[in-house]
Amino acid sequence: MQLKFLTGDACPVCGDVTVVSEWVATETLRDETRVLQHVNGGMWEYRKFACGQALEYIPNYSDTRPLERYRCQRDPELLARRERMQRVKVMMEEMLAGVPILVDSDRQSVLEAIRSIRMP
After folding, report:
1. Angle CA 74–84–114, to nearest 5
2. In a 3-state reduction of DSSP, which class is residue 109?
3. Structural domain contains residue 120
């Protein structure tokens, strides 16, 4: 797909240039799908890279910005957050392992719950 307005051929975080998908905003009304177009003629355009980051063109501002819900998986801030969460998870497991008040079955269920926590 050839996007008219969106600028940015690389991820602003890691520089990845591998484009996974491109699309424009559409709406469906009564079984008819149409492309959304701003009064100034611009369209809402999107480009997603292999690293997970996506860019969007916002016609209201005539600007290309990173799309918040698609973050670069190589973002140092995101990697640091995952590392901190993993350390906290390990600390919680170690702390619970040494608590004598909990019944073994309760301790095991709490540990399983902690281990099932997904990292962002």
Report:
1. 115
2. helix
3. no
pLDDT at 92 over 90: no
For tokens 């819900």, the residue is 69
Q: What is the pTM of this model?
A: 0.71
The C-alpha atoms of residue 68 and residue 60 are separated, in whole angstroms, by 17
- Helix (H) and strand (E) counts for the chain? 2, 6
The C-alpha torsion from 34 through 39 and 12 to 55, rounded to 10°, is -20
pLDDT band at 12 (very low <50, low <70, confident <90, very high): very high
Query: Measured between alpha carbons, how far is 120 from 113 in angstroms, rounded to an integer?
Result: 16
Domain total of the chain: 2
Q: How far apart are CA 33 and CA 39, in angstroms?
A: 18
Which residue matches tokens 């998986």? 73
